[in-house]
Amino acid sequence: MKEEQLFKDQFTVTYESLKPINVLRKTINDLLTLSDLKEPLFETATGIISGYLSRLLIIRNSKNPLIRLAGIFAQYSITNLVSKNSNAILKVCLGYLHKLTNHFQKEKD
Length: 109
Description:
Blueprint: H1 2-17, H2 20-33, H3 35-59, H4 65-84, H5 86-108
Helix pairs in contact: 3-4
């Protein structure tokens, strides 16, 4: 009787772990915990996001093909620039943030 209950419990655990949402959740969790992938993933994501935002700022609602072409060129350039120099950009941004918080802290005191 005890073996039957253990078998049922193990079957339930296996069944739950093989559900697609749980497999996807575990895969994403495993990817995020791999330290070798975190940094390149962060660099790529920041590059793509900043490139896309720069394209939106240039193009806006323009129908002009030259402006659209310039927006695509800017997106490509900024994506490459940010993804290759993300560590330096992060250090500069953190430095400014540190100065800003120190400034507000001094005003508060």
